[in-house]
Amino acid sequence: MRTLSDLFDRNRTWAAAMKERDPDFFLRLSQQQAPEYLWIGCSDSRVPATEIVDLLPGEIFVHRNIANLVVHSDLNCLSVIQFAVEVLKVRHIIVCGHYGCGGVMAAVERKGYGMIDNWLQYIRDVYRNHQVVLEALSGEPARYNLLCELNVMEQVWNVCQTGIVQNAWGMGQQLNVHGWIYDISDGLIKDLDVTVTNKAESAAIRRRI
Question: Does pTM surpass 0.85?
Answer without folding.
Answer: yes
